[in-house]
Amino acid sequence: MKTALLSDIHANPRALEACLAHAETCGADRFAVLGDSVGYGAQPVEVIRRLRKLVRAGAIVLKGNHDELAVTPPEHARTLDEGGADWTHRQLDAADLSFLDTLPMSAIDGAVYLVHASADAPHRWYYVDNEHRAAASLNTACEHPGVRYVFGGHVHEQSLYFHGAGHGLMRFQPVPGVPIPVPPHRRWIATVGSVGQPRDGNPDAMYAIFNAARAELTFHRVAYDHMAAADDIRAAGLPEFFAQRLELGL
């Protein structure tokens, strides 16, 4: 059984469709979307409608901080993110807003704990970007019987941490396309990267596939027309900065 793990789509259907197609060619038969389906990008309606179809087919979809912000944007925007959330909110109808609002913040799927940010406080949106934060998330998730893996997003980069021979966590830097053995006698936590807005200097979309039967995790990068996605943002009248981030992978 292969589960495609996608996160931080950020209203970028071009990147989403590229990753879904790639995952299908890799034999993925299940999908989990780990939050931040909207925000920054120009096509939130298209992404939400696609995700609703995936849910009907059995996919798991979680809530991220940008999804929450789009449902209830602040009355007076103080940042580009908040202004973008207000724009997103106005694009969505009642059914789309209800879909985002009722998404869970975490889910357990066998030995896997899924969350957008950190399992120890999903609603606080902590960034799992170092060994300390990874340990807090992993230790909390593994209080649930049988959980050996935590998969999340939020940080827009791909990383993998595991318990080595000592008491602390060790970080492993994955290579795209290379399967990594993740045997369940250890405990593992990964951030799967961003489908719709990578921030590591490479504009190619990110996602990962977990092969439960073989206990392997493979991180992927997928090229798509990111320049067209940036043009979509400009055509929608959203901040130029949002378009530049797609073009440069920042």
Radius of gyration: 17 Å
N-to-C span: 33 Å
DSSP strand (E) fraction?
15-25%
Number of helices: 8
> Could you give the order of the helices and strands?
EHEHEHHHEEHEEEEEEEHH
The biggest sheet amounts to:
6 strands, mixed
Silhouette: globular
Number of strands: 12
Secondary structural class: alpha/beta
**Low-pLDDT segments, ≥5 res:** none
Give keywords.
250 residues; alpha/beta; 6-stranded mixed sheet
Task: Describe, in plain words, how this protein is organized in 3D.
The mean pLDDT is 95. This protein has 8 helices and 12 strands. It is α/β, with parallel strands linked by helices and 250 residues long.
Briefly characterize the structure:
The protein is of the alpha/beta class. The chain has helices spanning 13-25, 44-56, 65-71, 80-91, 94-101, 131-141, 226-235, 240-248; strands spanning 2-6, 30-33, 60-61, 106-109, 112-115, 149-152, 158-163, 169-172, 180-181, 188-192, 205-211, 216-222. The longest helix is centred in the N-terminal third of the chain and has 13 residues, at 13-25.
